[in-house]
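Researcher: We're teaching a course module on how sequence relates to structure. For the next exercise, students receive a sequence and then see the predicted structure as tokens, so they can try to spot secondary structure elements on their own. Here is the exercise chain.
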Amino acid sequence: MKRILTIVAVLLAAAAPASAQSREQRQMMADIRMLQQQTQELQVAIGTLTQALQDQITQIKTVNTRIDAASDAQRKGFADQKVTIDEMGKDLRAIRERVDDTNVRVSNVREEIEALRNSIPVAAPISAAPPVPVGDPNAPAAPAPTTGPTPPPSTAGLSPTRMFDTARADYAAGQWSLAITGFDAFLKTFPRSEMADDAQFLIGETYYAQNKWMDAIAAYNAVIQNYPMGNAVPEAYYKRGLAQERLGQLDDARESWNTVIQMAPDSDAGRLAKQNLDRVARRPAQ
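Model: And here is the predicted structure for the students to work with:
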């Protein structure tokens, strides 16, 4: 721009002699010189602004770099914290499992100690026999000891798990009498075991498998009455309803199944009870 104005000024000066320059021409030359000066000032201002803009861009890039570095460090910190929390969760689960296993073992040991305590017979007092004169040939002979009925086999030293598993193995093999005997012995030896309700329920299942409906109902009732907080109670209500149906006691069966639905609607026993109620409802009237 400056170069163009200079060329225009030179051409105007050469086009007319110095003596013929008019006042308008001199004014024009002055304007051109003013434009040249303004152009120079404008170029300086543009250069200054350009430099300031470049400095700002550099600063923005520096800030962005710092922000990216801080974000990466934060993400890495969060990832490390998550790994640490996951490891702590695994350790807590392992500790919880060990504590549960220890509690089960302590409970079994406590039951075994109680069983041992109950199985120790109380010694009967020994009655003193009348003194016999020494050397008396006419002294009566000592009475022979009397023998009572043979006691049942001792369960001392048997763990509740072993006794329960043995009886359940007899049940699975169809040895009904052995299974009932084993479960009865388990209930007498470990009446407060966590598996007591299961043992009583399996007694009912043994009778049910033999089509002994009345005995099965009595066994299921024992589960309901003796172990109201046991996990076998819903199943006992359901199977009691089936046994009652076999005996033609449909009203009692409906009551048993309705109790299961109210007690544990989302359990397997609850769903099966609902299906049996629907089945009985669809049965044609006799």
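Model: If you want an answer key for the exercise: Residues 176 and 206 are 6 Å apart (CA to CA). The chain has a mean pLDDT of 81.
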